[in-house]
Amino acid sequence: MLNWYLQSGKEADVVISTRIRLARNLDEILFTTKYSLSDAEKIIQIFGNIIPSLPYELKLLKLKDMDYITKLSLVEKHIISPNFVTEENETKAILINEEENICIMLNEEDHIRIQVLASGLDLENTLGLAVEIDEKLANLINYAYNEKYGFLTSCPTNVGTGLRSSVMVHLPGLTLTSNINKVLEVVNNFGMNIRGVYGEGTKSQGNIYQISNKQSLGISEEEIIKNLKAITDKIIEQERLARKYLAKNAIELEDTVCRAYGTLTNCKKISGEEVKRLLSDVKLGVDMGIIKEITDYKIKQLETFTKPANMQKYLGTVLDGYDRDIKRAEVIQKIINE
Amino acid sequence: MLNWYLQSGKEADVVISTRIRLARNLDEILFTTKYSLSDAEKIIQIFGNIIPSLPYELKLLKLKDMDYITKLSLVEKHIISPNFVTEENETKAILINEEENICIMLNEEDHIRIQVLASGLDLENTLGLAVEIDEKLANLINYAYNEKYGFLTSCPTNVGTGLRSSVMVHLPGLTLTSNINKVLEVVNNFGMNIRGVYGEGTKSQGNIYQISNKQSLGISEEEIIKNLKAITDKIIEQERLARKYLAKNAIELEDTVCRAYGTLTNCKKISGEEVKRLLSDVKLGVDMGIIKEITDYKIKQLETFTKPANMQKYLGTVLDGYDRDIKRAEVIQKIINE
Known about the structure:
The structure is a homodimer of 338-residue chains.
Chain A: E1 15-24, H1 37-50, E2 59-62, H2 68-76, H3 82-86, E3 93-96, E4 102-106, E5 112-119, H4 123-138, E6 145-146, E7 150-151, E8 163-170, H5 172-176, H6 180-189, E9 192-195, E10 208-213, H7 221-248, H8 250-266, H9 272-287, H10 296-305, H11 308-315, H12 321-337
Antiparallel strand pairs in A: 1-5, 1-8, 2-3, 3-4, 4-5, 6-7, 8-10, 9-10
Helix pairs in contact in A: 2-11, 8-9, 9-10, 10-12, 11-12
């Protein structure tokens, strides 16, 4: 079974991935802003005990036992949040399966954050699995829940459903046709957030944006993903229209795409930033049928294994920044040629 | 027999070509600044008559009978000067052989300009052939010659030997190590000119420079080329030292060279300017053994057939600027892949 981020998903020409996150807290323990070290350890203990009752073949990993590169590699794969790693790790843990599409973070901003990921656009199934996990957990532990407000969370913005649903989209067409800012504005007006790939406050890299719901209170889980689905469908349509427009000036587009491919296949050293920029062009070329030499699967490998920590995992060695740039060129050419 | 500019020459890693030019005038006709249209036509007539007496299989071509692209293609190959084409063509003609290494221009700044070209560094043989042609002509026509000053010419700077000897050198190493300006200065101090590839007042393109003698009076032909040879040998040595220095940081150099190769082999449109820049890197890579896929012969083809007029001759079609950029990419990839 391939890891989720290497699988092919639906609407994969525009939508890279789907993510569902449910924020939950235990009723009998103070929230993370107020609780003690022993409270945090108790949570990990509770989950250690209930793992065998869950059918997902989850492994409990304490962050303090993981090396830095392994932790960073999970951030690069969008499986855990950057803050979860950079803050002190003493009390943090994750429950994760082999496919890496299920990851429950313990002692993040909330006691429990259930996360389910999928390749491409797959909001219904992803929510379905998250809800299933949530219900199984609810049979084993007591959630902090209020009849009027719903699930209680550390941050008021998550109160209610505790649901954050998001999709990661690749929008090179809208960028190249200078329509991207108009689209960002419309998405905001529809009550959605749109931002860089590592969440709030980060910039877009390689024309990749994350769209997610703002509201989690006074609205059902189904409505939340219905709204997100509607806006995502609209963006897919606009992005495809932009690509059709670009295809009219075929030579310009082919030139951009093929030069990017030529640089990736010939360079002897390359930064992660440049790879993101060039891969955006190459992915556009593959999705539009301009580049036939490489598959969508290879694009996914390139996206994953050119990031610093994943590259070091892939190569099985620790490398400094300069050597990484050289090895990155080798990794790219190895993946393309194999 | 290959045209001279496609042949392999000596010291070809640094020296692209050698050129000898002898300026001569007929004794019985006024200089070009003063003469009449019928004088000019008389000169062409004289040469038409003496061609059969010369052993070089020269053809007489009148510029007014040549199409613009053919004339421009000769300029691009450095066989005739840009001014010779852009000024009015009514009275201008050339005598040229199949190999294109001999070209006698009629009614340029002087009545007669004997030119001999060779690939690589070959001053002695090139001068030898020019002198041989000159002597054969001297048996058939009367030169304007003064016992005290030597050959008389339109411009005082050419009086004496009438000789301009020059070599075209490729100096990417000295450029990349930022030593080029120091070298330009030294060459000037040694009584030589160093300038862009299309002669006086033009800028360097693709790190190519033309070095030539300033003095033509009070010095023998042999001394002129001995001095030019000495300074060229010094430049070759300095350029090779610079390349050795660059080779110490192999990855940086390989990256520059291979990226240039990647762009040339993948682009779908490209300007002549960009090709010159990239070809300089690729030629350096070929000369330093970094790129083994292509030969020196292909580099020479690429240098020649990517220039606007030669490209149109190569393709056998007339193209406007935008189409040229597209066809240029095709020509490059055809030459590399064949």
